[in-house]
Amino acid sequence: MSPDMEGRAIVVDLSKIEFFEPFGLVYAYVVVRQLHAEGAREVSVVLPTGDVGNYLDRIDFTRALLALPNTSLRNLMSSNKNDRSDRLLEFQSFTVSNDDEVEELASRMRRIITTQAPEARAIGEQIHMTLAELISNVEVHSDTREGVAVAQTIKGRLHICIADAGVGIPSRIRSLDPTLRDAACIEEATKARVTTRLGRGGMGLTELRAEIREGGGRLSIRSGSGMVDFYRSGPSASFDDLPPFRGTIVEAVWV
């Protein structure tokens, strides 16, 4: 627990946000969860109103927040859940404990995505590989083996985002090189044959980065105090000294 947070009532104000991409949805959820883990007595989330508030309810983001202990929502709206026009894969939490469960969940999510977005069937194998790799990372690296996932199409691009509340990439990579900053740790984790997983391969994030970049997309990874965006061409964009973040968020975007 954090001495600065223990026993406090915290307000998280999302009311001014006019648009949420999957990365932002997952980040907001994990931050609320992290506040509880650091000892907050209560977390109150102020939601946007209007179309954005309705959207958050339709994709089950509000339901996921309400499932967290001692969490209340302000401006909660009731939407038409039968309207699936902007829903691809609703915001959902999951738990995996072995490779069979990883494969089963990845296959189920792929079926949902390619059914809701038939145009994504052409990259169905890439979608499956992405889901399997990221869910497997949750199984291996998250202390609780719990994660969250959401997928949406935005302006013709498919976004898949998965996160966990594990120890994070920097903590693991520093066991190999303690001198690296957090963003450098993230870049190192995507290199071939770099792994902290005993008896398991180190090619997952490497292959994932290559596949997505080759297809003209983007791979974004946030962990610790660092974040890296990997693009199709040119150098990656690295950010350090961001607010400390427990766990890892990975978003894959295809054109």
Task: Give an overview in words.
- With 255 residues, the chain is α+β, with helices and mostly antiparallel strands.
- It has two domains: 1-79, no CATH class; 87-255, Heat Shock Protein 90 (2-Layer Sandwich).
- Helices cover 36% and strands 25% of the residues.
- The protein is built from eight helices and ten strands.
- It has helices at 22-37, 50-58, 61-66, 99-116, 124-141, 169-173, 182-189, 204-214, and strands at residues 9-13, 42-46, 71-74, 89-95, 146-154, 157-164, 218-224, 226-230, 237-239, 245-254.
- The strands form two sheets. The protein has a seven-stranded antiparallel sheet, with helices on both faces. A three-stranded parallel sheet has the order 1-2-3.
- A hairpin with a 2-residue loop joins strand 5 (146-154) and strand 6 (157-164).
- The N and C termini lie far apart (41 Å).
- The model is unreliable at 198-203 (pLDDT under 50).
Helix and strand topology:
Elements: E1 9-13, H1 22-37, E2 42-46, H2 50-58, H3 61-66, E3 71-74, E4 89-95, H4 99-116, H5 124-141, E5 146-154, E6 157-164, H6 169-173, H7 182-189, H8 204-214, E7 218-224, E8 226-230, E9 237-239, E10 245-254
Parallel strand pairs: 1-2, 2-3
Antiparallel strand pairs: 4-5, 5-6, 6-10, 7-8, 7-10, 8-9
Label this structure with key terms:
single chain; about 260 residues; alpha+beta; Heat Shock Protein 90; 7-stranded antiparallel sheet; 3-stranded parallel sheet
Summarize the structure.
This protein is α+β, with helices and mostly antiparallel strands. It folds into 2 domains: 1-79, no CATH class; 87-255, Histidine kinase-like ATPase, C-terminal domain (Heat Shock Protein 90, 2-Layer Sandwich), CATH 3.30.565.10.
